[in-house]
Request: fold
Amino acid sequence: MASRELIQSRTECEYKIQKYGIDEERIRTLVYITKLAFEVEKDKDFGLETSAHAKDYINRYIAKFRGQGKTVWDMEKIAQDNGIEESVGVVSMYYELLKAESYDVFESFVYFMERKRRQKKRFYLPRRKTMKIVVDDLQALEDSKSIKFFGLSMPSRVGKSTICIFFLAWIALKRPNSHSAMGGHSGVLARDFYKELNNIITTEEYTFKELYKYFHPEYADKPFPTDKSADYFTITLGDPERFATITCRGIDGTWTGAIDVSADGYLYVDDLVRDRQHSLSPQRMEDTFQEYLNKMVDRKIDGAKELMVGTLWNVLDPLQRISIQYERDERYVFRRIPALNENDESNFDYEVNGFSTEHYRDMRERLANAEWMAKYQQSPYVREGLLFPQEELKYSDGLIDDSTWIVTALCDPAFGGADSLSMPVRLEHKESGKKTIIDWVFKKGTQNITIPLVVDAIIRNDITELKIEKNSGGGLYADNLRKELEKRGYNHCKITTFSASTKMDKMERIKAYSDYVKDNYYFLMESRYVPTAQEDEENGIKRFRRNEMYNNAMNELHMITSEGKNPHDDSADAITLMAMNDEETLNRVEAIANPFRTGGYGYYGY
Reply:
């Protein structure tokens, strides 16, 4: 615990800041107190708390003189742009704080590691927008005594491997006599891992050696690193032992007897699936999973933690299999970051070497839906057992004769949480009976979010009849919807409620009616198959088009499988309920004259 004198010194310094304002002298005092807390009194909590205060004062000091919103990184960039490479003033003090806490704070370690690099060449700072999520997850993995496995899935080339290599370097800094291993799908990949790790640890471009000597003065006069081998892809720090601090090895290499993952070390597994061709072979995927278990996991000592990273190709991917197996185990934590977020915008539009929203949308247009959802959206698929595969559905170009049609809809409501309200809107030709899904409200959220969207869709499409599934609150939802329509002055949509059949569970009825949906419903084509809205406008053409919610509903529908568990099935359930309502209408019995008495002809149904 920090001494009374040190606590009093901080209190007095912060009192002066509150009374007289922030200046460099008072900031420097807080920096000095922070270093004393870490280096002399060994009080981590007090040190981190004081450092956080000091960093906040630095940024407030900069904002005061440089403008609101300006931070230490803006100051550093201005200096670099003017040829000043060494940090000075408050920027230098900020780095002193990062250095003092980098043993305990992973993000501070990464920041300080790249201190000598110009900002545009750094890895982390330009990518912090999204990478901060991963950094915080990795910090939790290291700090938590309960978490034993962290799985991370992201699209390719967004930096997931590099941040994890930084993490392994941080673990080596903290515990140089621990043993960790980094593995991938091949020896070639392992060589690349080794080259990047070796560059981070041993070159002057990074500050690892400075940090190592700072936190381990007992090794100051010893060789650095203790040993390394470009042949065996090993790096040893601290005291030489049989096993290296970090070993990089492909799954196709030798693990038994050559690698040890100590109780305080990590098994880091990255990209076990080589490519798309690899992922398409169930036997190869099974072989890979067994190799992973029998080669890699086998080298872990009890207590060792595991970090698995990759792009999810399909449900046979090792990372996906583990996530399914341990989805209810709190010791296993999983993070998926897709290419496009819920607003259809890029998660990886970095300042440097990022991927724009337009880039990802273009890729979505080019790829088959299953490929896009797996490789970019981290929603793995299985080709076997798909109930609504893209190629088996019927499609409309959205050009529909508006003279002989009626529009109805069915709503499967949701009230927040993980479920989505799902309301397909159907246009049916009176003469041909052709049924086309022209719109789809598909949204998570409370009634305050979804009711306005439903009302907009009713008015936009001139829906004449809406059926609402009343199980679990549907009746209340219908009442609130009627009130909102009345406020909007729209009173010619008949709203009724119905109860879903309890004879079959949800998945059974989805399976049972999947063929009916594929045979009788037409869905709007994706935008890549029809002219643009501008082209239609120039030609005086009106067309029903997919919007974002429609696309989201279809993406989920395409992924529904009869084999295994479906994480979400709201779109499939709603379209199935619509099909079931069709059947009930077709099978309705009507009273007729007895043909044997009148000589006429009766009918059943219509």
Notes: Residues 588-606 have pLDDT under 50 and may be disordered. The chain has three domains: 1-101, 117-336, 390-586. Residues 390-586 form a domain with the Nucleotidyltransferase; domain 5 fold (CATH 3.30.420.240).
